[in-house]
């Protein structure tokens, strides 16, 4: 290319950290991998729960629940398939963006 621009081939970007996520029926497990080293995963319940006082607990909030009597669970995954996308999205939003 006379007088034109020379194109540079960009090297592929290698991520410094990779998020590994296991979206299970009962728990979400998430951890980071950095250059072969694996951080301790974070494990949270994959559910939305409501207690008898009608207080809502999403995912990791369930640890704050003191009264487990008459608690109702809504689990977005059944038999390995997401069956309630709205609930699963709410859990993801809460765990990753709140």
Automatic annotation (TrEMBL):
It comes from the Eukaryota. This is Actin family protein.
């Amino acid at each position: 290319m006379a007088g034109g621009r020379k194109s540079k081939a960009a090297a592929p970007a290698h991520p410094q950290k990779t998020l590994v996520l296991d979206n299970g029926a009962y728990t979400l497990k998430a951890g980071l991998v950095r250059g072969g080293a694996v951080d301790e995963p974070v494990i949270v319940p994959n559910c939305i729960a409501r207690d008898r006082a009608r207080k809502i607990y999403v995912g990791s909030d369930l640890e704050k629940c003191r009264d487990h009597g008459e608690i109702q669970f809504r689990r977005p995954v059944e038999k390995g398939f997401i069956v309630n996308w709205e609930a699963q999205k709410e859990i993801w939003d809460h765990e990753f963006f709140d």
